[in-house]
Design goal:
Elements (H helix, E strand, L loop, with lengths): L6 H5 L13 E4 L5 E8 L2 E7 L9 E7 L4 E8 L5 E7 L4 E5 L2 E5 L5 E3 L9 E4 L4 E5 L2 E5 L7 E5 L13 E3 L4 E3 L5 E2 L5 E2 L9 E2 L6 E3 L2 E8 L6 E8 L4 E5 L8 E8 L2 E11 L2 E10 L4 E4 L13 E8 L2 E8 L2 E7 L10 E4 L5 E4 L1 H4 L11 E6 L2 E4 L1 E11 L4 E11 L5 E2 L6 E4 L13 E2 L4 E6 L8 E11 L4 E11 L1 H11 L7 H19 L3 H18 L6 H19 L1
């Protein structure tokens, strides 16, 4: 097995468990053509389409399908007066096509180069993608670049009769496989022929042979003495031949298209070919384990009636399947998949009670086994509301493959409501326990506050009491702050006011009278004479009023007035 797995090897694990597949992309082929050759160059597919069966004069054209835009472009056409080979070959990022006695190279961009050999007539061709081979007049030639510099490799009389019209010569990098009489052309130009051909074997189609590495593969029907059986034949360049019987339980009656990649073989078959009832499918065969399994139950054929599989091709990195139903022909494309790996996450809400989800947060090491670049996206995108969400991570590679996984995302609010703290204590003057109107604190929360309150008593006793204010949000988070409430007796409140006068920066001409009146009021309260205390406090208020804006700044005058009025209110209560 090769170290780097190709596309088909990617499709099935060695233990027989198939990974999840991306969805097939289906394309209707142009009505003007029947595909006789197809090659993929990244996400662009070139195909040689045949319009007429008036052999050897055929009407054909080269079409380009862009898999992303789904648009067809006509690159080149051949009229009925031109002689066109029934095959084209992948060669140097384009197709080599035999047309009108010439060999042309056409790129996906429509560039045309003449590769015609400097020989009389045209032979049979093969390509391994890097070199182009021609078999003509008992001689094998090779071309390595986009020129007309063909080099002779071998001249053998056994090669006679393998010219145009006798089938295709297949190249597998170092070995050529003529499809007639199973001659094998070895790297040194020598010839070998398999010593064993299954008795009664029948090629379904000469160009169903596929070469890979040191082997070529084709399907046959043969008679082992107990009736016809279907089999896959592998021929090595050493002329060793092996027959692999196709299990009858797979249900196929005929097998023809073969695609090979990294020792894995895809075979297309027809379930039934009677009374025009035709249903096709794909199976996989892996020689190293000698096991067969369905490629995918319906493959690209689901939902169609009587599809007929025309051809399959592994055009790295894509798998291409041609099929028809009725008079319509289709191309189905399956790209190699990346591996999507997700993880569950918890996100904290922001100021708007939502959380932003990004692919990087959900990604848990997604990758592409073939090394293609990947991009990540999520659905739904953007901000997620509070609570549990299922988010899909899509991993797409640069050749059109994608896979998905789902993540559990919990958007939580773990921060308590923020309650603005009180800057100062609340002071109240009373001679007895008193009910106090408390301020309402400012509360903010990312989501919503569902309840708030405090533990204040109905009546505040004389002295200091600490009140706790709290707020709870919908997630059960609780925030709190405290307020100190001080209930003072009138005499103590006047004493505090008297002690604060020196710190107010008052002129002695105003401070001294005020201090005298406050001391007199305190003395009167000490003797239980509330009337005398009221008189002293009212006199104090008159001085403050008269000096406001003169000896007393308005703000200081207002502070003094409020304090004295609070004491007067308490005395009168």
């Amino acid at each position: 097995m090769k170290q780097k797995l190709g596309f088909v090897s990617l499709l099935f694990a060695l233990n027989g468990l198939a990974p999840a597949f991306a969805q097939w992309e289906d394309f209707s082929l142009p009505s003007r053509g029947y595909p006789v050759c197809v090659e993929a160059f990244g996400r662009q597919v070139m195909m040689l389409n045949k319009n007429s069966d008036a052999y050897p004069l055929m009407q054909m054209q080269v079409d380009l399908l862009d898999l992303d835009s789904r648009q067809y472009t006509l690159l080149r056409s051949y009229t009925a007066g031109q002689r066109v080979s029934a095959n084209a070959f992948r060669f140097h990022n384009g197709l080599a096509i035999v047309a009108d006695g010439k060999v042309e190279h056409i790129t996906p961009q429509g560039e045309v180069t003449d590769l015609t050999p400097r020989t009389s007539g045209i032979g049979a061709f093969a390509s391994d993608g890097v070199k182009l081979y021609e078999l003509h007049n008992q001689t094998l030639y090779v071309l390595s670049d986009l020129s007309q510099n063909w080099q002779e490799v071998s001249r053998r009389s056994e090669l006679a009769g393998l010219g145009f019209g006798h089938g295709v010569v297949y190249a597998s990098g170092k070995t050529l496989w003529p499809s007639i009489d199973m001659w094998v052309i070895l790297p040194n130009g020598g010839l070998a022929s398999p010593t064993f051909i299954p008795r009664g074997s029948l090629f379904v189609d000469p160009h169903r042979m596929m070469a890979e590495g040191s082997s070529a593969y084709f399907t046959v029907e043969y008679t082992p003495g107990t009736g016809w059986k279907d089999a896959l034949v592998e021929i090595k360049e050493t002329c060793e031949m092996t027959l692999y019987e196709i299990p009858a339980e797979l249900g196929f009656e005929y097998y023809f298209p073969v695609a090979v990649n990294d020792d894995r073989i895809l075979i297309g078959g027809i379930y039934s070919f009677s009374n025009s009832y035709r249903t096709s499918g794909l199976v996989e065969y892996y020689p190293m384990t000698d096991t067969w399994q369905p490629f995918e139950p319906n493959g690209p054929f689901g939902g169609y009636v009587y599809p007929v599989l025309l051809d399959i091709k592994v055009a790295d990195p894509l798998l291409l399947v041609f099929w028809e139903t009725g008079s319509r022909r289709h191309l189905s494309v399956l790209a190699p998949q990346p591996v999507a790996r997700c993880k569950a996450v918890q996100l904290e809400v922001g100021s708007d009670c939502t959380a932003l989800v990004s692919p990087s947060l959900l990604n848990d090491g997604s990758y592409d086994p073939n090394g293609y670049a990947i991009t990540l996206s999520v659905d739904p995108q953007g901000a997620l509301p509070l609570g549990h969400q299922t988010v899909t991570l899509t991993v797409a590679n640069s050749v059109g493959g994608c896979s998905r996984c789902s993540s559990d995302v919990w958007v939580k609010d773990t921060r308590p409501p923020a309650i603005a703290p009180f800057s100062t204590a609340l002071q109240v003057v009373s001679q007895v326990p008193i009910a106090v109107t408390l301020p309402v604190p400012e509360v903010q929360d990312a989501c919503a506050v569902v309840s708030q309150g405090n533990d204040a008593p109905d009546l505040f006793p004389i002295g200091q009491t600490t009140v706790t204010f709290w707020a709870t949000d919908g997630s059960g988070n609780r925030g709190q702050t405290t307020l100190s409430v001080v209930v003072e007796l009138p005499s103590q409140a006047l004493a505090d006011l008297l002690n604060s006068l020196p710190g107010m920066g008052l002129d002695p001409d105003i401070e001294n009278p005020l201090s005298a009146l406050l001391e007199a009021a305190i003395a009167a309260l000490g003797k239980g004479s509330t009337a005398a205390a009221q008189n002293q406090l009212n006199a104090t208020l008159r001085i403050i009023e008269a000096q406001t804006g003169k000896s007393l700044a308005p703000d200081i005058a207002a502070e003094l007035t409020l304090s004295i009025q609070a004491v007067l209110k308490a005395i009168k209560a």
